[in-house]
Amino acid sequence: MGAVLTLLSQDAVFVRTGQPRPRGVGGLPADKSLPRRYPATVKTTDLAKVRSTLWAAADELRANSKLTPGQYRDPVLGLVFLAYAENRFESVRSEIEAKATARNPATIADYKAKSVLYVPHVSRLSHLVDLPEGNDIGRAVNEAIKAIEVANPELKDILPRGYQRLERSTLIELLRLFAPLPTQLTGDAFGFIYEDFLSNFAAQEGKGGGEYFTPYSIVRLIVEILEPFQGRVLDPACGSGGMFVQCAKFVERHNESATRKLSIFGAEKTDDTVPLAKMNLALHGLSGDIRQANSYYEDPHHAVGSFDYVMANPPFNVDKVKKERLVGDKRFPFGVPKADNANFLWIQAFYAALSAHGRAGFVMANSAGDAGHSEKNIRKQIVETGAVDVMVAISSNFFYTVTLPVTLWFLDRAKVGTPREDTVLFLDARQVFHQIDRAHRDFKPEQIEFLANIVRLYRGEKLDTSCGSEPLLSEAFPDGKYADVAGLCKVGTRAEIEAQSWSLNPGRYAGSSSVDDSDEVFAVQFEGLYEEFTRLSDEALGLRATIDATAQGILDA
């Protein structure tokens, strides 16, 4: 990783200093119509620079093509995957071939024994980038995808097709961009690049991108509070699999093997998102059982009582779910809400999936913490189980899909029967954030660690200050012990929660900080009022239809 990489302004590719430059597809020069504004050099030790430079180059190619971000996403991610597969293949190839003989040549099984995909010659970017000028490049890449799937059946229906739909000049430039990477980067780097590209595509696609991607810092915070050391992990709205990747990284930060400690299970409604998740797992050396399923009506993993951890960022405030299909489903033990809103279907499904010692962490619309009528009754029942552990209020502008603030819910069925059974930790983190730009926020690593350490203090667990959260902790908790801090955190009892009409809104308990958050309060109140208006409008339509039918019956008599 120490070699200097030169990003050639003409060919837009990385090459190792001192090595011959790849000739490119058919020896063609770069497309002169594409502008070039790439930096002259970067070092592979500066991985962040490599990642940002790769994205800038790939994004500029799209900007000069006729493709939308959604059309461009899958082919680009497929090339990142091929580069990673070739990198892993080449890392063991010399060792395996050295042991081979004429009588016992190297086989695909030899590579599988090393947990490495076998990459046929025609599937290697180093081959594709050097094809003769007259070749149909799009067809050649499609054939490369087919060949690697034949050699590795577990990849069937994961890798993208359709490279012939890309403009020839764009595909050639992409091959030139990615082909040198297998000799320059490590497996971890490919995982980071894949995550970067997912994040950037999601930002470009707006609301549609948010359906498959949850921002890294939110996922990291959920994982740090959930603490998935070992066991079965479920995400029934898994998108591109980011929750699983961060679970694995958590295990590895604690010097354990994620492949040995975690069993991964996911469901995703959208067909073309399932491959994103499977590729994401593979790029991080993970495997899992990811199914295409609509989690409102389908339960492909027989989830009830089966999981040690549940993580999710489900779609908020979904209407038109066919509730008649849910009657008697054990995933909804507290009843089906009358409101045309699926929030409390998701919350119940997460709760029901947990084993007797399981934990859940998930993103939810703020309105679910205060919703009334049948939703309030369901929320009351969940609180009365003793499983609600931590509620975290997050400020606005963390997500691509919504600008409104959200709440993170954490359930812990293992706390039933402990001193914490009757309490909930309310964390108001709306004033804890890093402002990326005017429209986007995230958490710094020390802020994530600080918030997770507040939870650890509450639970009586060992603190982690490896990311630099010690100054924040010392300021908020000078005695080194948990204490309620106005505007930040408060432990609420079940009696206090009942007195607040079973609200789980952290702001009601932790109190407001000195920073004005009236805009966020208004946004949350407006969201709740709009939902109530929608519910009443739906009821009015139903009543109108009943009255019209009755009146028509009388008139026709």
Features:
557 residues, alpha/beta, 9-stranded mixed sheet
Outline the structure in words.
There is one protein chain. The protein is of the alpha/beta class and 557 residues long. 43% of the residues lie in helices and 14% in strands. A nine-stranded mixed sheet has the order 6-5-4-7-8-10-9-11-14. The longest helix has 39 residues, at 518-556.
Average residue pLDDT: 85
The strand line-up of the biggest sheet is: 6-5-4-7-8-10-9-11-14
Which regions have little confidence, pLDDT < 50, spanning 5+ residues? 1-44, 513-520
Secondary structure tally, helices = 19
Please tell me what the overall shape is.
globular
Strand content: 5-15%
Overall SS class: alpha/beta
Number of extended strands? 14
Oligomer: single chain
**Gap from first CA to last CA:** 86 Å
Profile the largest sheet.
9 strands, mixed
Q: Report the radius of gyration as a whole number of Å.
A: 26 Å
Relative helix content: 40-55%
Question: Summarize this, please?
Answer:
The chain is α/β, with parallel strands linked by helices and 557 residues long.
